[in-house]
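Quick question, first post here. What does this chain look like in 3D?
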Amino acid sequence: MLRAATCLAICFLLFSAGIGPLVAADLYWTDKNDATIWRGDMDGATPRQVLLDWSDGLVEPRGLGLDLANRMMYWADAGAGTICRADLDGNGVQTLISGLPFMGDLELDLAAGKMYWAETAGSAIGCANLDGTGRAYLFSGATQPYYLALDLDGDMLYWGQESDTRIYRGRMDGTGSVEEAATGLNRVRDIGLDLANNTVYFNERDLGQVKRTELGSGVLQTLFTVPNGGKPHGMALDLDDQMIYWTTTGTDSIMRGNMDGSGGYELLYTSPGAPWDIELAIPEPSTLALVLVGAVSVLVVGWRRRRSAPARG
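> Answer (accepted):
Ran it through. Tokens below.
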């Protein structure tokens, strides 16, 4: 009994020390007017925390991407014309690409080691390796692309355009034709994909609404109308918990609600400038976590078997 308890205690301490910081679920967002990148928890229960600001060289951060496995964040700075990365705590800032025109958004394909950005002023979508090498351009016929979304399983890229009424999609390598995925919209901002249910979520800036549509249906469903003249911009979906998170300029807030629109919305945080892009940090269980959980299970099963075994005479 003592040996089993000791092993369990050791496993618990290793678990807490080794992976504790990785299992917290957080929100990260950029604020373009305040030149900051922020972090807070997904319930709005803890104070927001500034990770980076103007003193770190930020001018107008917009698109944001997270690499949780390597504890890195990437962002597109529209004011500085750069794509940069740093540790998730804001340390170790690196400039990967410079000299870019105005950019609206940034997305990561970590499995392929690629990043994509919406080069709004250049009317193109750029891509490069995660270290900034191998820069190329896709969909040069796009007109002021603004926000992006990646369908990694289907190898498709979705985007909206600054003053357009449609969501477009095309292959992530830029080949083939561009399709209209949804039409009849109003100044689309960020896009969220729930393709298991053939559904696209999106923000409409001028109407101040968060909406969704089943692809091919032509039917638009309004989920939330943002109060006080706010303009929804960035979006992130938590498909496991069926929650949608979004940033709102004008009222400078971070909000969330159920993906089916029920129950109203919650105000989680305010941001002092104009919050733009938002990402969810929901780590998968690490290898160490799985090994430790397995070890604990084996110990518990072995101890129970020893207790239940008949005494030997």
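The chain has two helices and 24 strands.
The radius of gyration is 22 Å.
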